[in-house]
Amino acid sequence: MINLHNCLFHICMRKCVACARISSRYYANPSKHPTARIIVIGNEILKAQVKDTNSYYMSDLLYKCGIVVKKISVISDDVEEISEEIRNACDKYTYVITSGGIGPTHDDVTFEGLAKAFNDTLHYHPKLVDIIKHHFRVKDASSVAYKMAQIPKKASLKFGINPDTGKPNAYPYIVLNNVYVFPGSPVFFEKSFKCLYKELLSTNGRFVKEEVFIQAWEEVFANALSTVVKEFPNVSFGSYPVSNCRYFKAFVTIESDNESDTKKAKQRFQELNPANIFVDFDRTPHIDSLIKYNNFLQKNSSRSSLYERSLEKFRQFYRNNEHVSICIDGSIESSVIVHLAHICRVQLHSSDKLQVVYFKDEQAPPKLEEFLNEMVNKYNLAACIVKAAPDKRISKLTFLQPHLRILLVGKVGETGENQVNRNYSGADQLRIDNPLRDWTNEDVWTFASSLYLPYEFSLNKKTIRRRVISRLVKHDIQSRNIAVAM
User: Fold this and answer.
1) Using the 8-state DSSP alphabet, how is residue 318 labeled?
2) In angstroms, rounded to a whole number, what is the distance separating the alpha carbons of residues 345 and 30?
3) In which band, very low, low, confident or very high, does the pLDDT at 338 lie, cut at 50, 70 and 90?
4) From CA 215, how far away is CA 236, in angstroms rounded?
5) Which residues have CB under 8 Å from 72's CB, separation 6+?
């Protein structure tokens, strides 16, 4: 009966917290900020044949510009639907941004829909015709590629400056009134949208946001959150529970138009809660990593010699960094190895990307690949994805990257015991080395937790290590000249 009472209490509290969270999530003084409507166009998105990443990318950058994204919609490749969506949106929002539907195929009809929305007609823009003819080297005037040059007469071209080169882009995005039209392919979209982002960034005020990380469930701080929502009407609050995270159970965002209001609201929220529930979490352990590492050594002096010896090994490995790669698998050990290599790169003042390899396993959870992509972006890694059966992975890797000589992996087996270092000769020799072989599990978690290193919590580490490393070594050591130091 007591357990049932507790269960009902937690359910009610979670509902109350959810209501408080929803009511508190609003933008302060929205009239002060421009608004945006995002329209994603494409049957392939609606059919789940392609995953939309453009709206996420846009929303992130627009927020940094101080622009409030009010609505995102995904619609089909239909002229009438595109026209209606654009016509209804252009008078309600500061910016209307579309992605998709401007290619050469029959179902790319965004320009037709745009023209109809503004009672306009299409024409071949001479500048676009020139680009397709000379830049894309399409000489045949009947080629379907010229469809991309057919835009509304009232529309204009915006080339923008490439932030990487400082030169105008080779291909423009299209603007008609307050409607901005971009391609759907993320490769081309992101490059083009960066130009508009730079333009918006210089003209709009940004939000000032703070995050508070909490090692407690939402019901613990729900009353305090409700209080600060009432006390700070010009501040926006958001509460987000998380699962499968070792470092915290929830985080609260606090944002406003100015630094003073944000900081006062944050301070008040912290005053209303027990001090021991807050976590000084670091979302960016890769930034100023050497400073943070030295601070860590001072706090863990009893084991500092172990960590320093390991870092010295990395300096030896990376004397020829083009010959070294790291096996990443989402485990905490692989995150530790990547971070140590990153610190080593900072110490050596190297601008070269760290090479990593991911042995893709179809049985791995979908979240793993998302996590690994985040790791690649965060640490600016050069990733090689190997799709092959377990007994063919080393062969495939050495075929794809014949320059490699050392592959760094985490521990193998539950104890992480050393295995015999088998020295073989041969021009295609690949040495597999575990730079953490002298570490205990406590050493790994102390290092990772103190520096807040990312890892894929949901993975069963034993299964991943056995699947990705042990089978790999077991099969390939019999058929190739591979030296193993575990």
Assistant:
1) G
2) 44
3) very high
4) 22
5) 37, 38, 39, 40, 55, 59
